Amino acid sequence: MRTGERLPPLEIAVTRTLVVAGAIASRDYQDVHHDAELARSKGSPDIFMNILTTNGLVGRYITDHFGPTAVLRRVAIRLGAPNYPGDTMVLTGVVEAVDGDTATVRVVGENGVGKHVTGTVTVTVPSGGAG
Predict the structure, then answer these.
(1) Which residue among 59, 94, 98, 117 has the highest number of C-beta atoms inside a 10 angstrom radius?
(2) What element of type H or E holds 13?
(3) What is the structure's pLDDT at 128?
């Protein structure tokens, strides 16, 4: 881990199944996350991913890079453009700071509409961990 280190991009296909499964797994039963007709009636072109699914994907991105011993200490994200089925979200990250075995990583997830998610993740990787 070093300041300025760029994490390799991760492409995630945003499928209808991913959107619905993420909503169900996080017990978010808002109709805009599973019912396309109701989502359209509320002004959205389709169902869209919820923040809890996005949060989980950001966490996966970090732990996939830093390895199985990585511990997420803080995840602070903000949503922007929706993730609709049929699009691809590309996550990228840059290590902003390192303090011993702990790093702060700036994460951005973009799709065909724009920036879906931005934020920072603080992760601790005990000595001997991947990265």
Answers:
(1) 117
(2) strand 6-14
(3) 62
8 A C-beta contact, residue 83 and residue 116: yes
Closest by Cα among 84, 89, 97 to 118? 89
β-strand partners of 68: none
| 60 CB neighbour count, 10 Å cutoff | 13
Bridge partner residues of 7 (DSSP): 93
* Residue 56: partners with Cβ closer than 8 Å, 6 or more residues away: 22, 26
Max Cα distance, the chain (Å): 52
Dump pLDDT digits (tens) for 34-55. 999 999 999 999 999 999 999 9
3-state secondary structure 90-125: EEEEEEEEEECCEEEEEEEEECCCCEEEEEEEEEEC
Q: Is the pLDDT of residue 14 over 90?
A: yes
CB atoms within 10 A of CB 125: 22
